[in-house]
Amino acid sequence: MQVGKDTVVTLSYRLTTLQGELIEEATQDQPAAYLHGGYDGIFPKVEAALEGQAVGAEADVMLEPEDAFGDYDAELVRMEEADLFPPEVEVGMQFEGASEDGQHYMLYTVTDIADGKVVVDGNHPLAGQTLRVQCRVVGVRSALPEEVEHGHVHGPEGHQHH
User: Fold this and answer.
1) Phi–psi pair at 75, nearest 5 degrees
2) Which CATH class is domain 7-68+128-150?
């Protein structure tokens, strides 16, 4: 079977920086699966590289920031009063907060604490980086009707929505 719209693709992969630093991986023994066909389960550029491929196919894809986690946006860095945070706040903690326009929620990471102020960054930690995805197709099957309806893969025991 070939990778195409509404197939479930199982992959082993390595996601690394251009310097070879491992960010994430899925092995042959513990592969990852996604619903193919524009459901946002994988980077679109990787999905395009796998289109029409079969089990055993390999892809090595470079992802520029716009193909992955976007460019770094300095406007997403904010300085807030420390009293807006819990007393145990420390660098590396993450908080959900409203975007500058108040229209949606974003995840902010604490990057600095000094002089009664907390600096938070709404950029994804990998924003601005070019990444490399090396992957191998280890399985392809037709998606179940409910997987297509829900837009994602369900596990072997089914899937519960809450």
Assistant:
1) -70, -10
2) alpha beta
- DSSP letters of 110-153? EEEEETTEEEEE-S-TTTT--EEEEEEEEEEEEPPHHHHHHTS-
- Tens-digit pLDDT string for the chain (162 aa): 999 999 999 999 999 999 999 999 999 999 999 999 999 899 999 999 999 999 999 999 999 999 999 999 999 999 999 999 999 999 999 988 877 677 778 889 999 999 999 999 999 989 999 999 999 999 999 999 999 999 999 876 444 444
pTM of the full predicted structure?
A: 0.79
C-alpha dihedral sign at 115, 118, 121, 125: positive
Length of the chain counted residue by residue:
162
Paired residues of 120 in beta bridges: 78, 110
CATH number of 74-121: 2.40.10.330
Q: Domain ranges for the chain, please list them.
A: 7-68+128-150, 74-121
